[in-house]
Amino acid sequence: AGGTAGGLTMPLLLRAVITSVIVFALAMNPPLPWLTSRWPAWAVYPTLAAAGLCSLVFFLQKRLHHSEAEGGKAADDESRPAAFVSFQRQWMLVYLITMLADWLQGTHMYTLYSSYNQPVGLLFGIGFTSSAVFCTFLGLLVDKYGRRNGCILFCVLELIINSLEHWDSFWPLAAGRVLGGMSTSLLFTSFESWMVSEHRRRGFKEEWIAETFAFAQMGNGFMAVLAGIISQVSSDYLGDIGPFQVAIALTALALSLVSFWPENYGG
């Protein structure tokens, strides 16, 4: 089409530029003074600027994809059936909730253990060692005994782990780190393998799997940013244990949703 720049019409490009200027202006001069009075300016300004940049990139990417589709350049840009969209959203909802809960645990773990006067390095080492051990065989067990069961076990372990974080004692914390290594292995095997297997069982097109993974990874990035904000707010009101308490609530929600999934197994 005439009057385009890289697939974007000039009015759209102009609107994107104007929007980005407004967002960055707000980032440098926040309209809500209580933000900078509540949290340090060095944290507020970069967060708002990053949110504006992400919004701009998302807007440009969406408009570019739309323009290419209208020009006939996206041959594979066919409408997705309602059954696939429903399945994709069902899995994405649970996946993003679990990733948000997982991100929340990492933000204040060091400060929490330090406030308990516990050996932080040793506890972290126990967690990493546990993950290195369990990752070698948990995936095989998940395939054998069921991926949904693996997801349920992950949620149960996370509820136990985050509850153990409330104890100001080495051994409960160490037990939590051992279970944390197990749950980390389950997180990165059970959920994705369940989605791929269920996608194929329902007869959806193979190339749509990549689309689901792309959305999941983009959403995971947003969850990481959101986790930083939620953890800061929760720790301000509840102390260093606050993010773990929020993670308990999110994990319980994920567990209730996973319970409705059908089971599938590895070949």
What would you say this structure looks like, in words?
There is one protein chain. The chain is mostly helical and 267 residues long. Helices cover 78% and strands 1% of the residues. It has twelve helices and two strands; from the N terminus they run ββαααααααααααα. It has helices at 10-28, 33-38, 41-70, 82-107, 109-115, 120-134, 138-145, 147-164, 170-187, 190-201, 208-238, 242-258; strands at residues 4-5, 8-9. It has a two-stranded antiparallel sheet with strand order 1-2.
Strand-helix topology:
Blueprint: E1 4-5, E2 8-9, H1 10-28, H2 33-38, H3 41-70, H4 82-107, H5 109-115, H6 120-134, H7 138-145, H8 147-164, H9 170-187, H10 190-201, H11 208-238, H12 242-258
Antiparallel strand pairs: 1-2
What general form does the structure show? flat
Count the beta strands: 2
Task: Bin the strand percentage.
Answer: under 5%
Approximately how much helix is present in the residues? over 70%
Mean of residue pLDDT values: 83
User: Any idea what the radius of gyration is?
Assistant: 22 Å
- Largest sheet: number of strands, sense, barrel closure: 2 strands, antiparallel
SS summary, helix count: 12
Order of helices and strands: EEHHHHHHHHHHHH
Question: Low-confidence stretches at least 5 residues in length (pLDDT < 50)?
Answer: 1-8, 73-77
The structural class is: mainly alpha
Q: In terms of quaternary structure, what is this?
A: single chain
User: Termini distance?
Assistant: 49 Å
- Report strand order across the widest sheet: 1-2
